[in-house]
Amino acid sequence: MTAVDAPPTLSERYPAVPGPPPSKLEDVPGWFTPADKMLFAWLLGRQNRAEPIGDLLEIGVYQGRSAIHMASFRRPGEQVAVCDLFDFAREESSILARERDRYASLTQQTFERNFLAFHDELPVILRGLSESVVEHIAPASCRFIHVDASHMYEHVRVDTRSARSLLRPDGIVVFDDYRSEHTPGTAAAVWEAMANDGLKVVCVSSHKFYGTWGDPVAIQDELIEHLAASTNYISEIQDVMGQRLVRVAKAPTAASAAGGRRAPAARQGRAPRWRKLAVALLPPVLVSVLRRSRAAARSRAASRR
Question: Which has the closest alpha carbon to 35: 197, 203, 153, 166?
Answer without folding.
Answer: 203
